[in-house]
């Protein structure tokens, strides 16, 4: 795992990589212990998560991105963390680079899916219409399986769009899997918070005030 610093990466002098979730939780717990005044959250270490970034990451390989995010957050909370999802506000800068990148990525994946689908059709025709020996047939079958995966992945990535009512849908999904309840390790997932514009600004403010001891998009 990586505990990154998002857009502030160039401003820091160190970065922790290769951490397990338990390691990450330990770091966050130590950050909590170093606070002069503990936050009013039951003494549990808190982590804020940029949901608009996370849903694009998990959505690449998931049919239901919101459910994937909910399960991902619950898994992190089982390390004793109080995880707070933070969503971008409805009003976002028109020129926000991330939005342009996401649109470009979706378009690129549409093209990938189309090309892979065409190649898949060619392979399928060869399997049906050609007299092949066992080696050739086995090779084409493996190629077909690989192309089927490529098509599915590219189509999923091309369709990954942040839902209009993301905070509400995410909260419903979290409640549905009881992620909001305190687990045996003392962790839980809080109700999503909505930033005025971008999640980063709200998370930085919460970090500086001690309400969260870490903020990022949480790696796998």
Report on the architecture of this protein.
The protein is of the alpha/beta class. 52% of the residues lie in helices and 10% in strands. The strands form two sheets. Strands 3, 4, 5, 6 and 7 form a five-stranded parallel β-sheet that branches. Strands 1-2 form a two-stranded antiparallel sheet. Helix 2 packs across helix 3 (65-77).
H/E topology pattern? EEHEHHEHHHEEHE
List the domain count as a whole number.
2
**Beginning-to-end CA distance, first to last residue:** 6 Å
pLDDT < 50 stretches:
1-7
Biggest sheet: strands, sense, closure?
A: 5 strands, parallel
Give the fraction of residues assigned to helices: 40-55%
Number of helices in the DSSP assignment: 7
* C-alpha geometry: elongated
Number of extended strands = 7
Radius of gyration: 21 Å
| Helix-strand makeup class | alpha/beta
The chain-level mean pLDDT equals 77
| Percent range for β-strand residues | 5-15%
Q: What's the layout of helices and strands?
A:
Elements: E1 2-3, E2 16-17, H1 21-33, E3 46-50, H2 51-59, H3 65-77, E4 82-87, H4 97-129, H5 134-159, H6 166-176, E5 188-189, E6 193-194, H7 199-208, E7 214-216
Helix pairs in contact: 2-3, 3-6, 4-5
């Amino acid at each position: 795992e990586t505990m990154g610093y998002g857009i502030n990466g160039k401003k820091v002098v160190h970065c922790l990589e290769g951490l397990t979730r338990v390691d990450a939780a330990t770091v966050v717990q130590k950050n909590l212990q170093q606070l002069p005044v503990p936050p009013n959250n039951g003494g549990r270490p808190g982590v804020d998560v940029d949901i608009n970034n996370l849903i694009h990451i998990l959505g690449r390989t998931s049919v239901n991105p919101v459910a994937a995010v909910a399960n991902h957050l619950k898994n992190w909370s089982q390390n004793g963390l109080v995880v707070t999802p933070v969503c971008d506000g409805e009003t976002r800068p028109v020129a926000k680079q991330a939005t342009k990148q996401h649109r470009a990525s979706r378009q690129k994946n549409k093209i990938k899916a189309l090309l892979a689908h065409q190649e898949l059709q060619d392979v399928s025709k060869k399997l049906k219409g050609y007299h092949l020996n066992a080696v050739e047939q086995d090779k084409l079958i493996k190629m077909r399986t690989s192309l089927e995966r490529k098509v599915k992945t590219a189509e999923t990535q091309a369709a990954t769009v942040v839902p209009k009512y993301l905070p509400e849908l995410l909260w419903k999904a979290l409640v549905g899997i009881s992620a909001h309840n305190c687990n045996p390790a003392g962790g839980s997932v809080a109700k999503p918070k909505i930033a005025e514009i971008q999640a980063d600004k709200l998370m930085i403010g919460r970090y500086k005030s001690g309400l969260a001891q870490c903020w990022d998009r949480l790696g796998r």
